[in-house]
Write a structure and sequence with these properties.
- With 335 residues, the chain is of the alpha+beta class.
- The chain has two domains: 28-206, MHC class I-like antigen recognition-like (Murine Class I Major Histocompatibility Complex, H2-DB, Chain A, domain 1, 2-Layer Sandwich); 212-298, Immunoglobulin-like (Sandwich).
- The protein is 34% helix and 34% strand.
- The protein has seven helices and 16 strands.
- It has an eight-stranded antiparallel beta sheet, covered by helices on one side.
- β15 (283-288) and β16 (296-298) form a beta hairpin.
- α1 crosses α5 (176-200).
- The longest helix is centred in the first third of the chain and has 27 residues, at 86-112.
Length: 335
Amino acid sequence: MGFPGARLGFLAAAVVLLLRGGRAGSSSHSLRIFYTLVLDSNQDVPQYNVVGYVDDQLASHFDPPTRKMLPQVPWLLNVKKEDLHFWDFISQRVSTTERRFKSDLAILHSYHNSSRGIHSWQRMIGCQLSKDGHKQGYFQYGYDGEDFISLDQKTLTWTAVDVRAQVTKRRWEAEPFITQNTNNFLEKECIQLLQKCVLYGKESLLRKEPPLAKVSRRIQYSGMETLICGVYGFYPKEVDATWRKDGEVWEQDTFRGGVLPNSDGTYHAWLSIEVDPKERDRYRCYVDHAGLPEPLILAWVEPAFVINFGLIAGIIGVVVAAVLIAAGVTVYISK
């Protein structure tokens, strides 16, 4: 992406040292860029949108009025101090992609005899870098909101999702430079850009925020119980959470909800297990994370009894009302 070779070598070495400096299980890092072109036959100007994410955090977006990619996190502003033309170069690449997208969409219309209306062409490109230096890339396309075609980096072939995509597959594989350029971008330019982001954003991207965890219970109609272990507010994304029975990992009957991002840049996750109430005390939720000095071990705890003053006041009110009514009836009868 126009970075000096010597500087790239320094970036790679620095990032590997930063990643390896953490506790075992600390984070890998990812960069993903999403492109979307929406064409409406009732509108003259198509809608073009580009957003970039670093570790699931919105890092930059395309501003149509200025035709520029704009940073959305403070640490990306520091890149310009060292490379004055960095954002101009990125913005030019994004604008070039828009012209290519319009051409691709026109070709798809002609191939598939698409009707008038709203049509979209999307692309997700990305790469991931782990602390041991392992690299992985992603290059996927979607047409009208559905998966269309993607690059298989192992075989350097295109995987067509349906019959419609076969035409595109044959066309792209007939021109080897398309596949070669795509793979070169994933293995070199994408990784270089990710390394640059990790280096400048290390205070944010390499931080460690320990999780909070809690076990709750849900009683089922069958008489069984579901224990739910909620894990909240942790960073980095990698977390090791398991249910254990008598100290042994118990994956059977365990259901996982996945690790999802929060709006503040941290993550949350949950996992549940179905148990017999008689054996409930044999189960524990174990949570290990790079931000913890030692794993959390949690069991379901009976909630402490809390006095419901509102309910008590209501009962007293009913009793007082009943007494007054009874007294009134007694006076009426005596008269």
